[in-house]
Specification:
Elements lengths: L11 H12 L3 E5 L5 E5 H17 L7 E5 L4 H12 L3 E4 L6 H11 L1 E6 L4 H10 L5 E4 L16 E3 H6 L15 E6 L9 E5 H12 L11 E4 L11 H8 L2 E4 L6 H10 L4 E4 L1 H13 L9 E4 L6 H10 L3 E7 L6 E4 L11 H9 L3 E2 L4 E5 L14 E6 L21 E9 L5 E6 L4 E3 L2 E3 L1 H10 L3 E11 L3 E10 L7 H6 L13 E4 L13 H8 L2 H4 L1
Parallel strand pairs: 1-11, 3-4, 3-5, 4-8, 5-6, 6-7, 10-11, 10-12, 12-13, 13-14, 24-25
Antiparallel strand pairs: 1-2, 8-9, 14-15, 15-16, 17-18, 18-19, 19-20, 21-22, 23-24
Helix pairs in contact: 1-2, 1-3, 1-8, 2-3, 7-8, 9-10
Bound molecules: adenosine-5'-diphosphate.
Adenosine-5'-diphosphate (ADP) binds next to β14, β19 and β20.
């Protein structure tokens, strides 16, 4: 029997019309590349998004066309999130920290028709323009006075504010199939060419519902959210959509992500929640501790993208009273998969036990189904011990890569994540490694993340990365790379001794190398492949 309910497609534009109608007074605050702070309300944002939708139509952007952005977190980027997707085109966010070859590859692969960019990124845009085979339209995201004059760009650069200023603010958001593409994000492609993940309106709206839930990112109209995670890193983990769905106040940091700048913004704007990768919080915590500061408004923060060291969770919660929401996800998952919110019976655990649970990547949010499998694809038990490859499925999980191989990445309806994990009886999943980072020592697997977690507990360790180095007898053995805190006198032997009793003897690193800095990739994650190359033969030759 056919149900008798309204058929309304789940469209990104509906988030904006809701925000305008029900939270029009809510504020969006942005630090701008022009150097000042910009403030306006959701109702102004909605009006300008409609003007931009008209401007896009004037530029000849049609349904399904790809529109690129090379921009930091700010209100104009937010307007494009809605103007582009809302009018039926596809928002393609590009990460300015990527290598030029990759940016050119992505723009050509996606066939972007327009590229919107923040003016401080002009040198990158000029380099891209010189390499593109077909012409595209460039739009500088600023006002007329700040539009850069570029001799290198043969095509004229359009001005964002001119486009808005000359466009009508009447625009009916079109209604269309919710399975149409809304945005496109490429994985950073540490191996091979980047691969495009093409989200739909439906997958985005469903992901937004799930992300906002209390046991997920736990957002409400009472929040002031600071997305530190960039809008080019998997749609800032969905926060630009969540904020519209629930009417939260938004604070955008622009390109200023160092500890001091973030702290000042958090305090000045009374931010209540934030989200970012662990390396960002490392910088923020170092600043707060150096200057003996405290947080007066921030209550919780989402940490994901890489494993959050338990020492960081403990410090944020116990010293700074900021709750940590440890989350796991991937570009291929829009990105949310699991969140480490405790269950009621876990609250009575000892602080150590609770921290151990929080260091795991958490339980599946509704919509994501997961399992772990062995090399033959057999499902492994949820005993908290057995590890296997993590497989996921759900309405916001990728089916096929954009213009990818016919068969797509999936195996029997499940997406193989490339992560190795265990799952406990409470359904808490713990990533032990990415398959390519695991250390294979004489037939046994050693978790590099576990070694890094222990190292992070040492009081003189600022950051640590564990990689496989070649070994004459065991094939691979763990090598620990450490950046010490300023003034530390800790020796390699002391650090190695710190592992005694904390990990099985055969998992203890063979050596420690001190470094000034650990190389990070375009999304702030440790570049393990680069380190592996650099230290491949270290144990054979040291
Ligand atoms: P890329 O694959 O280009 O790094 P993603 O941002 O999609 O881009 O990275 C997804 C991967 O990041 C996951 O497969 C996993 O290995 C890692 N990851 C994400 N969140 C966590 C987390 N909380 N703990 C450990 N690893 C994580």
């Amino acid at each position: 029997m056919k149900a008798l309910m309204m058929q309304q497609p789940l469209l990104v534009s509906s988030l904006l019309t809701h925000a305008e109608r029900h939270h029009g007074e809510q504020e969006i605050v942005s630090k701008r590349v022009e150097g000042d702070v910009h403030r306006y309300r959701f109702r102004d944002f909605a009006q300008r998004a409609r003007q931009m939708a008209n401007a896009l139509a004037e530029l000849g952007v049609l349904r399904g066309d790809r529109v690129g952005t090379l921009a930091w977190n700010g209100y104009r980027h937010m307007e494009l999130y809605y103007a582009v997707s809302g009018s039926g085109a596809v928002l393609h966010t590009l990460n300015p920290r990527l290598h030029l070859d990759q940016l050119v590859y992505m723009i050509e692969h996606a066939e972007d028709r327009v590229l919107f960019f923040d003016i401080d990124l002009l040198p990158i845009v000029e380099a891209i323009a010189a390499r593109l085979a077909s012409p595209i339209i460039f739009v500088a995201m600023t006002d007329r006075a700040h539009v850069p004059t570029s001799i290198a760009l043969t095509a004229a650069v359009l001005c964002y504010e001119d486009l808005i200023g000359t466009s009508d603010d009447h625009f009916e958001w079109p209604q269309f199939d919710e399975n149409a593409a809304s945005s496109l994000c490429y994985t950073s492609g540490t191996t091979g060419n980047p691969k495009g993940v093409l989200y739909s309106h439906r997958s985005t709206v469903l992901h937004t519902f799930a992300a906002a839930l209390p046991d997920a990112l736990n957002c409400s109209a009472w929040d002031t959210i600071l997305p530190v995670v960039p809008m080019f890193h998997v749609n800032a983990w969905g926060l630009p959509y969540v904020a519209c769905m629930i009417g939260a106040r938004l604070v955008f940091p622009g390109p200023w992500l160092k500890g001091d700048a973030l702290y000042e913004l958090i305090e000045a704007e009374r931010v209540t929640m934030s989200a970012g990768v662990p390396t960002v919080w490392q910088g923020l915590l170092a600043h707060v501790n150096d200057q003996q500061l405290s947080f007066s408004s921030m209550r919780r923060t989402v940490i994901g993208g890489a494993a959050c060291p338990p020492a960081m969770i403990a410090e944020l919660q116990e010293v700074h009273c900021v709750d940590v929401i440890h989350a796991w996800g991937m570009t291929e998952l829009s990105p949310l998969g699991t969140v480490g919110s405790l269950k009621p019976h876990q609250v009575s655990m000892s602080p150590e036990e609770r921290l151990a649970v929080q260091a795991r990547q958490g339980r599946a949010v509704f919509g994501v189904d997961m399992k772990i499998v062995d090399a033959d694809g057999e499902e492994m038990p949820w005993d908290g011990i057995t590890t296997g490859e993590l497989m996921v499925r759900g309405p916001w999980v990728i089916d096929m890569y954009f213009r990818g191989a016919e068969a797509g990445p999936n195996r029997d309806g499940w997406f193989p994540t490339g992560d190795i994990a265990r799952i406990d009886a409470d359904g808490f999943m713990q990533i032990t490694d990415r398959a390519k980072d695991v250390i294979k020592s004489g037939g046994e697997w050693i978790s590099s993340i576990e070694i890094e977690h222990v190292a992070s507990l040492h009081p003189e360790v600022a950051s640590a990365a564990c990689i496989a180095a070649r070994h004459h007898k065991w094939d691979e053995r763990p090598l620990l790379l450490v950046v010490k805190k300023p003034g530390s006198t800790a020796t390699a032997d002391e650090l190695l001794a710190f592992f005694d009793g904390k990990v099985a003897r055969w998992c203890k690193p063979d050596a420690v190398v001190f470094m000034d800095a650990i190389p990070l990739g375009a999304t702030g994650k440790v570049l393990k492949n680069k380190l592996r190359e650099q230290f491949r033969d270290y144990l054979l030759t040291a």
